[in-house]
Amino acid sequence: MRVLRANVQTGEIRYEGVPENWKHFGGRALAARILLDEVPPACDPLGPYNKLVWAPGLLVGHTLSSSDRISIGAKSPLTGGVKESNAGGSTGVRMAWLRLFALIIEGGPPADGSWRLLVVDKNGARFEAADDLVGLGLIDTGERLFERFNDKIGVSAIGPVGERLYRSAGITHMDNDQHLTRISARGGLGAVMGSKHLKAIVFDFPSANRPEVVDPELFRDASKRYIKALQEHPQTSAGYPLYGTAGMVNLCNTVGGMPTRNFSNGRFEGAEAISGETLHELNKSRNGEVSHACMAGCIIKCSNIYHGSDGEVIVTPLEYETIGMMGSNLGIDDPDVIARLNAVANDLGIDTIDTGAALGVAAEAGLMTFGDGLRALELMEEIREGTPLGRILGNGAALAGKVLGVKRIPAIKGQAMSAYDPRAIKGTGVTYITSPQGADHTCGLTIRSKVDHTNPEGQVELSRDAQYKMAGYDSLGVCIFGGFGMDASIVCDLVNGRYGWDVGIDYLTELGKKSILMEREFNRSAGFTKADDRMPEWMVHEKLPPLDTVFDVPEEEIDSIFD
Amino acid sequence: MRVLRANVQTGEIRYEGVPENWKHFGGRALAARILLDEVPPACDPLGPYNKLVWAPGLLVGHTLSSSDRISIGAKSPLTGGVKESNAGGSTGVRMAWLRLFALIIEGGPPADGSWRLLVVDKNGARFEAADDLVGLGLIDTGERLFERFNDKIGVSAIGPVGERLYRSAGITHMDNDQHLTRISARGGLGAVMGSKHLKAIVFDFPSANRPEVVDPELFRDASKRYIKALQEHPQTSAGYPLYGTAGMVNLCNTVGGMPTRNFSNGRFEGAEAISGETLHELNKSRNGEVSHACMAGCIIKCSNIYHGSDGEVIVTPLEYETIGMMGSNLGIDDPDVIARLNAVANDLGIDTIDTGAALGVAAEAGLMTFGDGLRALELMEEIREGTPLGRILGNGAALAGKVLGVKRIPAIKGQAMSAYDPRAIKGTGVTYITSPQGADHTCGLTIRSKVDHTNPEGQVELSRDAQYKMAGYDSLGVCIFGGFGMDASIVCDLVNGRYGWDVGIDYLTELGKKSILMEREFNRSAGFTKADDRMPEWMVHEKLPPLDTVFDVPEEEIDSIFD
Predict the structure, then answer these.
(1) Looking at CB atoms within 10 Å, which of A89, B56, B359, B559 has the fewest?
(2) Whole-angstrom distance, CA of residue B498 vs CA of residue B494
(3) Whether B323 contacts B345, CB under 8 Å
(4) Tell me, what CATH number does A26's domain have?
(5) Do A49 and B537 touch (CB under 8 A)?
(6) Is A514 a domain residue?
(7) pLDDT recorded at residue A22
(8) How far is CA A237 from the centre of its chain?
(9) CA of B161: which chain A residue's CA is closest?
(10) For the segment B480-527, what is each residue's pLDDT rounded down to a tens digit?
(11) Which of B47, B161, B29, B36 has its CA nearest to residue B84?
C-alpha cells in the first residue's frame, strides 16, 4: 500500500510509503491523523495550506457487504474544524485495488487559474486539464468523463457549487452505473476541492485486485458470521431493503422529532404521504425496482429508487434525511417534489441537509411559504445560477440565517442539524453538540435505542457509546447498517484476519475513541472550546410541540462526555 | 447617580443604585464590567439574553473639551465577543445631566412584535410605541422625533439596517443640530438594538446639570492645563481643526498602508484628490465652514464638513476611515462620491468601515469594478432596499466574503479592518488581532509613533501601550485627540478632583488594562482562544506593494502581549 500525494498548484505527484503512525488507521481515523500531522489547524480552510484526504476504511477492498466506504477529510470551511465525510459507491474499493492507502491533495489552484483533473490508474497518476468541465453539473461531468476515459472508471467530482466555494458543497462519487451517485455531502469538502481548482479525480482501474488477507480462514469465517447476522436481522433483511432509510419517517414522527417547518414542530401532519411505506408502494405501482446496492457485494441494498409517474428514475436514493430536511422541514408533503429537489441537489453536488435547513430558514425569513414546493424548486435554481440569493442559500443554514436575520437557525458549529429534532431525541442532540464534526446524525444516532428520548438522563452515555462505535465503523469503512450484523468478535476477527494483528474485544470502541480524540485535538488547536459544544439558545428555551420538550441535558455532563 | 434598567419585552423600567463594583468604572470599562456581571458570554447576541449598555465615561458631563463620549456595549453579533463602541455627540452629557450612571436595555422584542421607543426625562423613563418610525432612515427618524418631542432632545436610534439585524448596523446619536450625527458604528450594536425592537431612545433634558465635583479647584486647574496643552499642540490646534481626520490620507499613503482596491496595494494613485488638504481647499472654495465641534465645549473641532458643489452640506464629518474604506479601498478618487456614499451610510445607520470593506470584497468578486463610484452608490441602495445582495453586503466584509467566495477578506474576529494595512503598519496590525474588540484602529493606533512601521520588532509593546492607553481614555469618555493634551498628571488630577479618589500616576494605563482584562475574560468564556488572535492567512503570505511587506510579527510575542 502506498500514499499518493498530488499538489494541484505545483503539479507535483509523488508516491510514498505509509508512515508508521498511520498504518493502524483507516477511513475517518486516518483522515484525522493525517490532518493533525500535516494541516495547520488555524489555516484558512479554502487556502493553500488545507489538504484534502481520501482514506478508505481498514476493511475496504474485499466487497464484503457494506464495508467499502471511502472517507474524505479536510479542515471544514463550514465548521472551521476537522471534517470527515464518508460515502458508499466504488471509490473506496477502487483505491484499495490500486493499493492506495491514502490520497492527499495539496496546494492552492494552479497559478494560471486553470482547472485540473487528477487521473489515477495502475501505471501511476497524472494531472490533466479540466477547463472544459468547469460549470458542468455532476450528470454532465460524469457523462463527459465516461466518454473521455471509459465506462469502467470511478469518479470523485464537484459540481458548480463546489467550484463557487459554497460552504455546503460536497464531493460526489460516481461510476458507470448512473444510479450510483453517492455524495460525501457534509462540511463543505466540495468547496475545499473547488478552492484548489480540482474538478474531479478519475480512478481508472477496471479489474478486481483484492488486498492480501493475512489469515484468510479467520477472515472468511468472520465474514460468513457477519453475512448470516445481516440476513437474520429484521432491519437489514427487510426494513432497509424495502424502504431504505425512508423507513425512518414513521419512527421519527412517532417520537415527535421530525423536523417540521424549520424545526417549529416535531410531528408533521403530512408524514404518511412521505413515509418509506408510501414511497415503496408508489414505486411498486410505477413499476420500478425499489432498491439496489450502493457498494458491490452489499446484501442490504438500502438504496431506494424513486420513480416519477412516467416510470423514469428521478433520484436514487431518496434518503430519510432529505425527506426530513427538504420535505417536512419545508412543510412539503409531495414526494415527487422532494425527489426533484433531491435530484437538483445531486446534480449541483450540494448537501441536502444543509440546503434543506437553509431553505427552511429562508421560509422563516419570508422568502418562501412553507409547503410551496414550486418555490423551493425555484430557490434551488437560484443556487444553481449563483444569484446573490442562491449564494446565500448555497452556503448552508448557519450563514444563510445570519445574512437573512433569522434567529431560529438549526445549526451547531456552523453546520445544520440533520432530520432529528434534538429536543425530542436528546441523545442525538448530545451527539450534535459534542461531535467534533458539527451537528451530524451519522456521528452517533440514538433513535433506535429503547429509552425515553425526551428524558435528559443517560443521554450523554448513550451518545458517547454511539459516537465511539460510529467513529470505529467510519474508520473501518463499514456502513452504519453493516453494524447490525457485526458484534465485537466479528470485528476483531475481520481485522485480525485481514492484517494479522491481535486486536481485542474493545477494538471498535477504542478505534472510535482514538479517532474522536484526534479530532478534538485538531479542533482545540483550531480554536474550539466547550462554548462550541452548545445547543442553539432557542432550542434550550423554546418548547417543541407536540411533546413540549426543550433540550435540557446538563452542560456539566456534556462538557465531561469524553473525559 | 443611578442605573436605569429597561426591559423592552416586559415593559418593566427600574431605577437602581450603582453596585459597589461598578462605581470606579465608566465608559468602555463599565460596559465590560456590566456585560461580565450580567450577560451569559455564550448567549445568542441577537437573543433575549444579550443586553445593551449605555455607559458615559468617568469624566463625562462637564463639557470639558473632547471628554463627553458615550460608550455602548453588548455582546457583538459581528464578532461573537465583547463589544464597546463609543462616540461623541451629546448622548453622554445628557445622561450625566440626567444622573444616569448607566442605562441597560434588556429582554427580547415585545410579544406582539411591535416596536418601542424609550423616553428618558427628569421625571423618569417610559416606553412609547414606535411602529410609525419603523423602516425610516436616520434623517427622517430624527425629524419625526424632534417634531414629536422638542428640538432639545438627544436621540440614540437605529436605521433600517439595524431593524433588519444587519451585522454592521450601528447606533446613531443625534441632536437638534442635524449636522451632529455621530455613530457607535462598529460591531453590529444596531442589530442588537433591532433584535429587541427598540427603534430609539430619547433623552429629553434640555438644561445644564453638571455632576458634582468633589475638589473643584483641582479639577479646574487640571482642566486649564489640559486646554492649554490642546491649544499648543500642533495637531489639535491646527491639523485636526483644518483637515479633520482626513489629514491622515497623506501620512498613511506615505507609509504605504493606505488600503487600496481591497487591500491589494498600500499606496493609492488617487490619494492627492481625496486628501484632507484637498478636501479643505475644496470646501473653502465652496464657501463652506470647514469644521465644527461634535461635543459641546470641544476646542479641537475635528469634525470636518463636506459641501457639495452647490454649497449644500453632503455629510459631516467625512472621516479618514471612510475615505480609506469607501475611497481608496474601492479605487474611488472622487471625494464627492465618497461623501455621498458616507451620507447614505449615515442615513441607513451602517458602519462605513465594514461596509467599505464589504464593497471591496464585492468588487473582488466581480460585482463592481474598482473605481466605479456609481456602482458603489447602487450597491448602497441594494443595502437600503434589503435585496439579497444588499443583505450580503450589509452584514459586513467577513460574512460577505464567505458568501461571495472571496479569499482575500480583510477581517479579524469577523470584523473588518479599518483603513490601515497591517502589513505596512504592523503595530496597528497587532492591535487588530489582539484587541478583544476585533480589528479596530481606535483600540490602539500606532501610526503616529516614530518607528519603522514595517519592522516587526517592538510592535507588540507599541500596540500594548497604545491599547492600554486607549482603553483608559475610552473609559474616561475622552476622545483619542483629547489625549494629545493629557499627560498622566492631568488625568489623575481630573479624576481625583471629580471623584475625590486618590488615583496615582499609572491610573490611565491601569484603568485601560483592567478594561482589556475584563473583555478578554468575557471573550474567553464566549469561546475565544489565541487562534482568534491571528491575521488572515493571506496577509501573512501575500506581499503588500509597494513596500512588499507581509505581516510577520511572531506569534509567540503576540500570544503573550497581555501576560
Answers:
(1) B559
(2) 6
(3) no
(4) 3.60.9.10
(5) yes
(6) no
(7) 98
(8) 23
(9) A405
(10) 999 999 999 999 999 999 999 999 999 999 999 999 999 999 999 999
(11) B29
Query: Which of B413, B412, B437 has the alpha carbon at shortest distance from B422?
Result: B412
**A134 touches A169 (CB < 8 A):** no
User: What residues of chain B have any CB closer than 8 angstroms to a CB in chain A?
Assistant: 41-44, 46-47, 49, 164-167, 191, 195, 387-389, 391-392, 395, 399, 402-405, 407, 525-532, 534, 536-538
Query: What predicted TM-score, i.e. pTM, was given to this entire model?
Result: 0.97
pLDDT digits (tens, 9 = 90+) for B389-420: 999 999 999 999 999 999 999 999 999 999 99
Closest residue of A to B362, CA-based? A388
Whether residues A392 and B395 touch (CB distance < 8 A) is answered with no
For residue A383, the chain B residue with the least C-alpha distance is B403
Grid cell of A312 as nine digits:
423514469
Asked whether residue B159 is domain-assigned, the answer is yes
Q: Number of folded domains in chain B?
A: 1
Query: What's the pLDDT band for B161 if we cut at 50, 70, 90?
Result: very high
Domain span at residue B80? 2-204
pLDDT of residue B440: 95
Asked whether the beta carbons of A532 and A436 are under 8 A apart, the reply is no
Q: Report the alpha-carbon distance of residue A293 to residue A296 in Å, rounded.
A: 7
B49 with A537: Cβ contact below 8 A = yes
Give the pLDDT mean for B204-221. 94
> Which residues on chain A are in Cβ contact (under 8 Å) with B49?
537
Q: What share of chain A is helix, strand, coil (3-state, %, to 5)?
A: 45, 15, 40
Give me the residue from A402, A534, A538 closest to B167, CB to CB.
A402
Q: Does any domain span residue B388?
A: no
Q: How many angstroms separate the CA atoms of B13 and B541, rounded?
A: 53
Binning pLDDT at 50, 70 and 90, where does residue B181 land? Answer: confident
Q: Which residues on adjacent β-strands are paired with residue A2?
A: A100
Give a yes or no: residue A390 inside a domain. Answer: no
User: Which of B195, B388, B404 lies closest to A389 in CB terms?
Assistant: B388
Instruction: For chain B, give the mean pLDDT.
Output: 96
Question: How close is the nearest chain A Cα to the Cα of B272, in Å?
Answer: 35
Asked if this assembly's ipTM is beyond 0.90, the reply is yes
* pLDDT mean for each 10 residues of chain A (563 residues): 98 98 98 98 97 98 96 98 96 96 98 98 97 97 95 95 98 80 96 98 91 98 97 92 95 98 98 97 88 89 92 94 98 98 98 98 98 98 98 98 97 98 98 97 96 98 98 97 93 98 97 98 98 97 98 98 95
Q: How many CB pairs under 8 A join A and B?
A: 84
Instruction: Select from B129, B108, B121 the least CA-distant residue to B48.
Output: B108
- Measured between beta carbons, the chain B residues lying within 8 angstroms of A391 are 388, 392, 403-405
- In this complex, which of A167, A527, A536 lies closest to B402 when CB atoms are compared? A167
Contact A42 B534 (CB under 8 A): yes
A165/B405 Cβ within 8 A: yes
- Chain centroid to Cα B10, Å, comes to 30
For A379, A387, A406, A415, B437, the CA distances from A77, given in Å and listed in that order, are 23, 21, 21, 10, 24
